[in-house]
Amino acid sequence: MSKKKTTTNNKKTGADSGNKKGYNKTKRGIIKTLWGIFGLMVAAVIVFFGLLSVGAIGYLPNIDELENPIDRYASQVISSDNELLFTYSLSDDNRIMIDYSDLSPHLISALVATEDIRYYSHSGIDIIGLGRAIFKTVILQREESGGGSTITQQLAKLLYSPRATSKLQRVFQKPVEWVIAAKLERYYTKDEIINLYLNKYDFNYNAVGIESATRTYFNKTPRELSIEEAATIIGMLKNSSLYNPVRRPEITLDRRNVVLSQMRKAGHITRQEFDSLKQLPLEIDFNRSGHIDISAPYYRQHLAKIMMAEKPQRKNYASWQNQQFTEDSLAWIEDPLYGWCNKNFKSDGSKYNIYTDGLKIYSTLDSRMQKHAEDAVTEHMGGYLQNEFFREKRGRSYAPYSREVSDQVEDLMLRAMRQTDRYRILRNEGMSEADIIKNFKEQPVEMKVFSWEHHEIDTVMTPWDSIRYHKNYLRTGFMAMDPYTGHVKAYVGGPDYQFFKYDMVTTGKRQIGSTIKPYLYTLAMEEGLTPCTPLVHQPITLMDENGNPWTPRNPGHTSGETVTIKWGLQRSSNWVTAYLMGQFSPYAFARMLQSFGLKTPADPVVSLALGPNDASVYEMVGAYSSFINKGIRVEPLLVTRIEDSYGNEISAFVPRMKEIFSESTSYKMLDMLTAVVDGGTGNRLRWRYNLKGAMGGKTGTTNNNSDGWFMSFTPDLVAGAWVGGEERSIHFDQMAYGQGASMALPLHGLFYQKVYADPELNYTDDGKFDIPEDFNPCAGSERYSPDFYKSTEPVQSEGIDDIFN
């Protein structure tokens, strides 16, 4: 029995031994295969990151860009008083760069403790943090896994990663950011990386960078922040839209306390300090008006547009843009600044780019006068006129439109809807017109809307309501210029560039109304008439080319008295204007308008005398410069010179002038246009704004109060302002508020007051026009009437400018 049993056991042992050898061989094969796969993976990773590091794949920036990732190539625009107005860069951020030394130590402690505890010990990638993030995401399937991104990686993402549209795209962005982070660590110190990161982050409300953020939320500089304030700011880095102390104070408070807890764990604050600080309420000093905005945003946009303009080609213009193509083509030939970047070449033969070539552009704008102009717009539009418009339209179903189009509001709104980006996006996605309208009217969304008082308001409303809401706000354009050099001193293209990007100084053109009259009077003076030429003030009927009669209305005036041409301009009489129009061919007058620099062709009809044609504020200011400058029109000048990044002057710009009429006619026009201010429709500059020095001007109001204009000039400045609705059907129904003297004139009054009160500016309210002492504006008027000149004293009534203009 025992032998048999032993034999059996031996057989089993041999079989087991053979199986074990086979198993071990298979195991070794599997292990070998796994090591081979692992080796291939390691090699693939090495090759992958090697290719990334040399830029063979991915979007790795050039070495030069990595060495100078923030605004190395930004072009600077310098004001005439040697202040930095703004910069042009690829990032195009509203950012004020500050040094690391200007940061509060609490900011640094909170940032490192919360975002990257091993920041000072790694070289751009935290292996421990990365491993933890992968484990939590892949193994534990946690959505909120901490990310594993270092401060350096977050900077790389801010600087170079485009916004990911999917999780997969974001996964592929990560390796590139790792490579960039490693390179950033080679080129920068740890302190510099922190400084770059905090200067780059967007904290909402157009507060890009730590300087703007601390001023916006706490009205302080970064160095002045307390511990709890620094913790609030750093807490926003996780998601500034979610952890918004203005809109979501509760969860922002919780996030602040998390940061404070991390600071305690890292030893930056004691347990007692933490217990005390976490009990403090979340207190902010939200100072939207005090945060740092880009200066002269409308001027900034216009300057970039014209400097970067390409040579006009008809194929690039729509069928309805014939006039724009003509104007751009002439500008390309005549204006050295228009298309400058595409008409000038660097030493290597390439064209200039204001966003990447580090140019220094010396502007004609005066930073102080620009601020005075912006403040005047805010004070008049935001503090007075807009409130009157709201009051007039309150409770009216057709608001903000006028009563004349009350039955067309739905169609007008639909047209406005179709001009929005939202409409185009939904249309491209295949949504039907009916569904788009439903989406606009019934789907409330979170948004920011404009407010004069708060600048912007966070709210929830439908896109349809937001369109109508913003149409309630009146628009404006204001520009001031030196009449002799053409230097543009102030340029305000609208109420607020963030919400109303359409520039009403250069891009927008509106009917000019009675501001056209001085051009007709100039033609009359050139043909031998004088300010003192008398005529009977009565209705005038002119015949057009088709034999149809035209008799202009003249509200507020009586007929039958003998008046002068000067009186007619002073009171903006339509009958006197029609009389002068009857003395000349409409074709001659239309040519005269072109000589004044009005680019849009005017129809040569008799009614042209009352200003139905369109022009921009920019064109009108240039035109009115001729009245001061002895008949010579000066084209507005935006830039005096441009230097390259090495300080070499590349281009210099000089005023472009054109003689329109004689010097003696200019003196006659000065005599009449000063009378408009001294005792006519512009008289409130005297009695309301107490301006004493020599000054001329002209009011203008178009049909239904759709456009309110005022043009003014002193011996040193010429300025123009337009005020109106986004559409011509949006306007005051009452003329008391809708006329040019009420809508546009106050901008001039406030602007001049501020300029004269500024001790840093050399402008005084006691100037006189350069007119020869022996010049007699009435010389020659005897030939037109045996009665010679019947003197009329200027009416000093405070209400004279409310009659008609």
From TrEMBL:
Residue span(s) of domain Penicillin-binding protein transpeptidase: 477-715
GO biological process: cell wall organization; peptidoglycan biosynthetic process; proteolysis; regulation of cell shape
Coiled coil: none
Pfam families: Transgly, Transpeptidase
Domain Glycosyl transferase family residues, every copy: 87-263
Main location (coarse class): membrane
Region (Disordered): 1-20, 782-805
Keyword annotations from UniProtKB, A to Z: Carboxypeptidase, Cell membrane, Cell shape, Cell wall biogenesis/degradation, Glycosyltransferase, Hydrolase, Membrane, Multifunctional enzyme, Peptidoglycan synthesis, Protease, Transferase, Transmembrane, Transmembrane helix
SUPFAM superfamilies listed in its UniProt record: beta-lactamase/transpeptidase-like, Lysozyme-like
Gene3D superfamilies according to UniProt: Biosynthetic peptidoglycan transglycosylase-like, DD-peptidase/beta-lactamase superfamily
Subcellular location as annotated: Cell membrane
InterPro entries assigned: Beta-lactam/transpept-like (IPR012338), Glyco_trans_51 (IPR001264), Glycosyltr_51/Transpeptidase (IPR050396), Lysozyme-like_dom_sf (IPR023346), PBP_transglycosylase (IPR036950), PCN-bd_Tpept (IPR001460)
An annotated GO cellular component: plasma membrane
Pathway given in the UniProt record: Cell wall biogenesis; peptidoglycan biosynthesis
Reaction(s) catalysed (UniProt annotation): [GlcNAc-(1->4)-Mur2Ac(oyl-L-Ala-gamma-D-Glu-L-Lys-D-Ala-D-Ala)](n)-di-trans,octa-cis-undecaprenyl diphosphate + beta-D-GlcNAc-(1->4)-Mur2Ac(oyl-L-Ala-gamma-D-Glu-L-Lys-D-Ala-D-Ala)-di-trans,octa-cis-undecaprenyl diphosphate = [GlcNAc-(1->4)-Mur2Ac(oyl-L-Ala-gamma-D-Glu-L-Lys-D-Ala-D-Ala)](n+1)-di-trans,octa-cis-undecaprenyl diphosphate + di-trans,octa-cis-undecaprenyl diphosphate + H(+); Preferential cleavage: (Ac)2-L-Lys-D-Ala-|-D-Ala. Also transpeptidation of peptidyl-alanyl moieties that are N-acyl substituents of D-alanine
GO MF term (any one): serine-type D-Ala-D-Ala carboxypeptidase activity
Transmembrane segments: 34-60
Family: In the N-terminal section; belongs to the glycosyltransferase 51 family.
PANTHER family with a match to the protein in the record: BINDING PROTEIN TRANSPEPTIDASE, PUTATIVE-RELATED, PENICILLIN-BINDING PROTEIN 1B
Protein's name according to its UniProt entry: Bifunctional family GT51 beta-glycosyltransferase/PBP transpeptidase
Taxonomic classification: Bacteria, Pseudomonadati, Bacteroidota, Bacteroidia, Bacteroidales
